[in-house]
């Protein structure tokens, strides 16, 4: 099978530039939170107001600390990359540190960076750019197990639910890998494929190479994208679902949302409708597919509201319901192991 | 709304190179068959064994006959473009004839062609390459009516069924446009979008701009792609379905096929299952969606077999069933007009 995923070397240093507001540094802050063991520190320029709480390094210090990659963990206001940021990237590339970014512009296009990377033997890795040679999906049954997160909408907690499920499995000594399908996930995992940027014809094929054959008791925990009831993005969700051929899925839902965010004419689907549709479409490549839990984003609720809403969804679906960020993913992994004993 | 379709000028001349077998010239032969009124003739190099039955021209003769575009209507054995073909393309571009092709290589990359086109003020149009600036799908309800062809598989007659439906509507004086979604269809229509080559995130948006707002009694007849039960390509089908927001659909089916062609582990879906799934997914952007007919490819059957199979599908579905290439699309358009009176 042709095609490979994006992959970069660790440990890494996170670059925040000189942003002064955490909202511009969400990617970098998420990285430090979810992959602390692979992070040697942070690179901040004079005036930077964000502090991820890890060692403050300059470029030579990052090299000494063992950094093999510099990850651009913030976005510059306006979308461009300021010259003084580029200067720091060039300094790192010139001493052999790979540069990893998910910018709107290609790293190659930043002035002097290609030359610096060539001089230092560094790679420039754009996590928004799919690698060449992705295949068409074959539908061939692969060995090993897979779980996919699906959502009632975009941006409702799929990535962090996926990470929490993987973390819980590893904590129990189970064999598990987080499979990233979006740029932030790829930065956290150190590998993956940005599925929304893949040419339509190769979307199922990309999802297939993302979770290849594996040991019978190994689980790939695959980050979901979009929603099956989303009028703009459902094609991405469908390709990921059929290519991943998951055995199990977890529904992610924000209980305070009533419509597709940004598409106000489209009401949010019910969880029951989403389970039914996911099962119907997913059955094409895995007839045993089933839902094993509900992940709720309750971050904006009081404790009493949280408890009531979690009870309600558990009762309505007959499935474990949790806020995985607050409660952990334990009850869902319990259910997964009941449904699919090793 | 941003983004536009590919579009080229007519009339055109078809270029066959020096192929000696009709199977390499299917695109060009289909063009002459389906758009004779826009074709001034054919360009054949010495040794060419294919004859489309239209005037044989050289480049100056094509210019004199009014050709505004030269369409490469054949594939060269091996996939490349021979130097003596390129010389003819350069000759045409240099005197201001646009060059249109769906090759695996970009026209820009052929030696001397960019320069010749600049000199002659000609455009180089790759119909496999989507235009830049395609938007994300909005799901906004558009004015006018739409019909989409769907299939139990790829390559089962969707393109020619769509053309036959459009032809029948025009013959009755109804307002209709054929909307092309693949390279051959784009060449026939003179415009369209190669949906399988669009980046996943913009697939529904591309389908939306392909059939824009129109008069209330105008029908866009949209060429389908892939199949909802195809493990490699269903994401393209889903994006096209939801972005097109069709009022009506026609199922295309090859009665001799039992499995997805090239994917032998996947049985062909039943027509009933396909109607149900198409209606379920299409309802997201058009709650009134319904099936108005069955188009059967009976080209390899005897007259008795044909008649029996057409009767059987009509009885089983309660819908008009025809082979549109042999019988025309009349009964399906009758049903469409009953279901959606002007």
Characterize the structure shown.
Two copies of one chain form a homodimer. The first copy, chain A, folds into two domains: 6-126, 3-Layer(aba) Sandwich (Rossmann fold), CATH 3.40.50.720; 145-339, Rossmann fold (3-Layer(aba) Sandwich). In chain A, 34% of the residues lie in helices and 20% in strands. The first copy, chain A, contains twelve helices and 16 strands. Chain A has a six-stranded parallel beta sheet with strand order 4-3-2-5-6-7, sandwiched between helices. The longest helix of chain A is centred in the last third of the chain and has 15 residues, at 303-317. The A-B interface holds A 136-141, 195-201, 203-205, 229, 231-236, 238-239, 242, 263, 265-266, 277, 280-281, 284-285 and B 136-141, 195-201, 203-205, 229, 231-236, 238-239, 242, 263, 265-266, 277, 280-281, 284-285.
